[in-house]
Amino acid sequence: MIWSLIVGAIIGLIAGAITNKGGSMGWIANILAGLVGSFVGQTLLGTWGPSLAGMALIPSIIGAVIVVAVVSFILARMNH
Most buried of 3, 31, 49, 69 (most Cβ within 10 A)? Predict the structure, then answer.
């Protein structure tokens, strides 16, 4: 369980860095983005590539980028 949270946080940090939204996200948001992104990425793309803590890293990062981008878009639309 703790490894999943750590890997989820790292995946969320990577996704935040790729989308340039990592500075505005806190640790909890990074963990959630990583875990939800892992689920989304593995559901859409499968479980290929290197795996850590039960998460296929490449699909998980791609999924987390999608999650961060969608959430950022929705939040930006709500603020304007």
Answer: 31
- What is the per-residue burial (b if ≥16 Cβ within 10 Å, else e) of 26-50? eeebbbbbbbbbbbbbbeeeeeeee
Q: Identify the CA nearest to 65 among candidates 28, 13, 25, 24.
A: 13
Residue with tokens 């850590």, as numbered in its chain: 52
Bridge-based pairing of strands 51-52 and 55-56 is antiparallel
- How does pLDDT run along the chain (80 residues), one tens digit per residue? 788 888 988 998 898 888 887 666 677 888 888 899 999 999 999 999 899 888 899 999 999 999 988 888 888 888 87
Residues 6+ apart with CB under 8 A from 52: 3, 7
pTM: 0.87
Contact 16, 61 (CB under 8 A): no
